[in-house]
């Protein structure tokens, strides 16, 4: 039995660890470039034990410039910034900070979405000036009516309500039809990176089938969908990727973690060799079938895969996007 969820670091603990690491890293970098460390390293080159032997009397040594240097060395050695530097100098604790720099953040301040978000798939927003539901789905997308920003958090709500929405018919094209449920989705602006990372703090409510909450990154160039997470129930979700042509799809289904109990921090990291999924720092999945991932955009929302009564929401606290740190 896979009990990985018992090893997941609590979200508050994981966030504190990230904040502490960030603070320590900036202290480390500041010290690394400081005149203080340069002075300390120069003093480290002196063999004070050998220097003492050159003086016949201890009092003569204590009156010498060499003694003053030894005392200075002892003082610097106890300096908290230098101690921090020495502790982390040869560790890999700052691998993330050294590789990435934050280039974008969405904290959902105010009482409505920023204009960089649209309530539709990016391609439908530009081509048909609105949204649509895929064939086999049982909700109408309301293009913003089911999206709320409350106390710094995004809420995308699915509920029972009669509505008319668009869907795709392979013979007729886009058509309007009645639905008994409504939901929403949002799509962000494209971003480009050969080596990047996304952190999303989220939780779900009402994740019982047939209601599915999802966080995806669409790669339009390669006609690919990266599923950061899609709920199948409150204790089961999948991660992975799919091609628009339906070929070479690769998913991993994960069970046990209650996604309604608390917020969790979802992470997608990629480079030219691998794509990695983590939850609160815990490895979930990785994919080595990597293509060009320069042009991605996030899509967050919910859909219903059946007519059964289902209501709920996905709540997002923040989204942070990182790019490769330039040396």
Notes on the structure:
This protein has 327 residues and is an alpha+beta fold. The chain folds into two domains: 11-98, no CATH class; 102-324, Sandwich (Jelly Rolls), CATH 2.60.120.200. Helix content is 23%, strand content 39%. The chain contains eight helices and 16 strands. It has helices at residues 11-32, 35-44, 48-52, 58-62, 65-77, 80-88, 95-99, 122-127, and strands at residues 100-106, 140-141, 147-150, 153-169, 173-183, 185-187, 196-205, 211-219, 224-233, 236-243, 250-255, 264-270, 275-279, 282-287, 296-304, 312-324.
Number of domains: 2
- Following the backbone from N to C, one meets helices and strands in this order, namely HHHHHHHEHEEEEEEEEEEEEEEE
Number of helices: 8
Summarize the amount of helix as a percent range: 10-25%
Low-confidence stretches: none
Task: Give the class-level CATH name of the largest domain.
Answer: Mainly Beta
Report the portion of residues in β strands: 35-45%
The number of distinct β-strands equals: 16
Task: Please provide a brief summary of the model.
The protein is an alpha+beta fold and 327 residues long.
Topology:
Elements: H1 11-32, H2 35-44, H3 48-52, H4 58-62, H5 65-77, H6 80-88, H7 95-99, E1 100-106, H8 122-127, E2 140-141, E3 147-150, E4 153-169, E5 173-183, E6 185-187, E7 196-205, E8 211-219, E9 224-233, E10 236-243, E11 250-255, E12 264-270, E13 275-279, E14 282-287, E15 296-304, E16 312-324
Parallel strand pairs: 2-5
Antiparallel strand pairs: 1-16, 3-4, 4-5, 4-16, 6-15, 7-12, 7-16, 8-9, 8-15, 9-10, 10-11, 12-13, 13-14
Helix pairs in contact: 1-6, 2-5
């Amino acid at each position: 039995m896979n009990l990985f969820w018992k090893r997941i670091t609590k979200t508050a603990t994981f966030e504190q660890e990230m904040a502490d690491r960030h603070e320590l890293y900036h202290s480390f970098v500041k010290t690394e470039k400081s005149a203080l460390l340069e002075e300390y390293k120069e003093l480290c080159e002196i063999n004070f034990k050998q220097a003492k032997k050159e003086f016949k009397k201890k009092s003569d040594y204590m009156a010498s410039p060499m003694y003053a240097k030894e005392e200075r060395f002892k003082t610097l050695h106890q300096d908290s910034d230098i101690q921090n530097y020495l502790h982390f100098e040869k560790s890999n604790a700052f691998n993330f900070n050294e590789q990435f720099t934050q280039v974008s953040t969405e904290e959902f301040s105010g009482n409505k979405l920023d204009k960089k978000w649209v309530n539709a798939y990016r391609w439908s927003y530009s081509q048909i000036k609105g949204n649509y539901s895929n064939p086999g789905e049982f909700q109408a997308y309301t293009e913003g009516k089911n999206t709320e920003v409350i106390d710094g958090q995004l809420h995308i709500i699915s509920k029972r309500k009669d509505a008319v929405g668009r869907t795709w018919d392979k013979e007729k094209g886009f058509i309007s039809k009645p639905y008994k449920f409504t939901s929403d989705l949002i799509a962000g602006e494209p971003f480009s990176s050969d080596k990047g990372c996304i952190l999303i703090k989220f939780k779900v409510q009402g994740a019982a089938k047939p209601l599915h909450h999802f966080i995806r990154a669409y790669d339009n160039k390669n006609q690919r969908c990266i599923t950061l997470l899609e709920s199948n129930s409150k204790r089961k979700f999948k991660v992975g990727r799919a091609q628009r042509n339906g070929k070479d799809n690769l998913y991993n289904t994960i069970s046990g973690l209650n996604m309604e109990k608390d917020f969790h921090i979802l992470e997608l990291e990629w480079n030219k060799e691998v794509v990695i999924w983590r939850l609160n720092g815990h490895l979930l999945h990785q994919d080595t079938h990597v293509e060009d991932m320069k042009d991605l955009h996030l899509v967050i929302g919910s859909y219903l895969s059946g007519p059964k009564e289902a209501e709920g929401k996905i709540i997002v606290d923040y989204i942070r996007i990182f790019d490769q740190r330039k040396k």
